[in-house]
Each structure stands twice: as C-alpha cells, then as structure tokens.
Specification:
This protein is α+β, with helices and mostly antiparallel strands and 93 residues long. It has two helices and two strands. Strands 1-2 form a two-stranded antiparallel sheet.
C-alpha cells in the first residue's frame, strides 16, 4: 500500500467514525432554538445563511440552535423547531 492509499484509507476511516458517533452524541438531546449565545450555536441556522457551528453573530437569535437535554428546551426559554420555524416565517412577511 503506497502513502496515497494509506492517507485515503485513513481519511475514509475517520469519516466513517465521525458518522457513526454523531447520532450517539444526539441521543437524549433535542435542538433548542433561541438559546445560543453568539458564536455558541451547534450548527446551521433556519435562515440558511451558514451551516457551521460557532457561526452565530447575535446572542439568542431565534434561528440558531444548541443541543440540550430532551425536555428542557422550553424551560430554559428556548423553542423547538416547529415554533422557531413559525416565528422565522412570520418575521419574513
């Protein structure tokens, strides 16, 4: 096996490991919108203006989300996706 094949094999193994562990990390959690401080969101936003964790620019933007323990979102002042999406769509009218 040459070095290019080794690098490709290692990259594939890393990608597969990442894909296999992502659902396990989310088990027992839910997306909670409107609770992330600027730069602390977990991934893309409702507006589709970015798809990266840590890319939020405003504290508690209702379109940004963080994973929280299932059942705790609303008690910490957040919204589940359906409510956040409804509010986002209303704000675009």
């Amino acid at each position: 096996m040459n070095s290019k094949q080794r690098i490709a094999t290692a990259a594939l193994a890393l990608a597969l490991t990442t894909l296999a562990t992502a659902p396990a990390q989310a088990e027992g959690k839910e997306k909670c919108y409107g609770v992330a401080a600027a730069g602390q969101n977990d991934c893309g936003n409702l507006a589709g203006t970015h798809s990266c964790a840590g890319a939020s620019k405003v504290d508690y933007d209702p379109g940004e989300w963080k994973l929280v323990a299932k059942g705790t979102c609303e008690s910490i002042g957040g919204m589940l996706k359906a409510e956040a999406k409804r509010r986002y769509q209303e704000s675009q009218r």
